[in-house]
């Protein structure tokens, strides 16, 4: 019947798309892992890089993110935070933040890494502040995440706590009508 052909066609289309995506992901993942290996070789840390790669690919598998994206973020965060265990934790946190805020992963990493480093806290903690602003003030978490990234370094230097920055952002965004 036509319904059977439609189901079979849809299944075949899904399989072809999955194969196509896998074929496109393979070169990007190869490039990302080669970069990871080159950095490890330069640092003389071959065993550590294999464990790091395994952890990052586990995060990709568990979250459904492309392996190449997760490896790229992991490399970026290892450079930002200075050690592998923190980079692994922050990578998983950044992916969760991207999922709950519906922002591109690269944008989340750029914004929340700055706030996390400035305040010596996790990316999860900053994400929680952004979600809290959405719930209390009606401003979107997306806008709050971007704003935290934009002003966190200056706000910390001015002596403001993360809670104070959040409250200021909430009031400003609510009164300006931007959400």
What sort of overall outline do the alpha carbons produce when their principal axes are compared?
Answer: globular
Please give the number of β-strands. 0
Low-confidence stretches: none
Mean pLDDT: 80
User: What is the share of helical residues?
Assistant: over 70%
Strand content: under 5%
Radius of gyration: 20 Å
How many distinct helices? 8
Q: Name the helix and strand elements from N-terminus to C-terminus, one letter apiece.
A: HHHHHHHH
Instruction: Characterize the main sheet.
Output: none
From the helix content, strand content and strand pairing, which structural class follows? Answer: mainly alpha
Short synopsis of the structure:
The chain is mainly alpha-helical and 179 residues long.
List keywords for this structure.
single chain; 179 residues; mainly alpha; 0% strand
Structure description:
This protein has helices at residues 2-43, 46-63, 67-81, 84-101, 105-119, 123-137, 141-157, 162-176. With 179 residues, it is mostly helical. Helix 3 crosses helix 4 (84-101). The chain starts with a helix and ends with a helix.
